[in-house]
Amino acid sequence: MNATHEPVIASYAKAPAKTIAAAGIDFAYRELGPKGDIPVVFFVHLAATLDNWDPRIIDAIASTRHVITFDQRGVGGSSGTVPDTLEAAADDAYSFITALGFDKIDVFSFSMGGMIAQDLVVKHPHLVRKLVLTGTGPRGGKDMDKVVAVTYWDILRSVVARSDPKEFLFFNRDRAGKQAGKAFVERLKERTIDRDAPIGNKAFGTQLKAIQRYGRSASSDLSIITQPTLIANGDNDRMVPSILSSDLHRRIKDSELIIYPNSGHGGIFQYWEEFAPVAAKFLAP
């Protein structure tokens, strides 16, 4: 290896914490995998920080691609306050990406991150080469605005059960779902250094209202999305109803759709052994 080159980091648990200033915000981010011309930028879900990405999926994609994850404004290690709308969050993402010097990226997104990613590609269609949308739905999608009630109810259930809320929000409460949920939460603990602070209650509430506003607003014209698109979800998503994944598939020409059986919002995490290689192949350089 040339001494002037940085060593390739293959494990998300060991990716160094970094920051970059963009549009008056210090964005916290991590990167790993072999550097290339086009990175895969990961857009995270409601209430999530850098520590909420499943390392089994990140590491699989980073085996061949330059992967970048980042904290939304006002969350985790990023400065500022959480924006009131997902359009503004998409603008933040654009500022972050361009500050890093990229004019072309691939996108991997989950849940709220998928909503932000859609807003980004609609506004900057030439920025994105390939698009992965998981556990998400289109702007103005049917019952999208019910996410607030579902989220607070499942948080209450998790408190009573003394469990991580993600076990209720992301997974079915049958035997397979409970096992998958606990395994997922354990994987999120693999990183032991430079971990993010969890999201604050005010920031969490702002994100929820932004999703509700997204669900109640006019639809975006997704026909302009012509880049290769992979859509995936579980068949029983209570947060962002699974039918909205089919709706995205219908709206985005030539997109691919995967629905995993007997699984919920976190279907891609429950079925990571099947999904990770599919996503890595789709995003292969």
UniProtKB/TrEMBL annotation:
Transmembrane segments: none annotated. SUPFAM superfamilies: alpha/beta-Hydrolases (SSF53474). InterPro entries: AB_hydrolase, AB_hydrolase_1, AB_hydrolase_fold. Residues 40-269 form the AB hydrolase-1 domain. Coiled coil: none annotated. This is Pimeloyl-ACP methyl ester carboxylesterase.
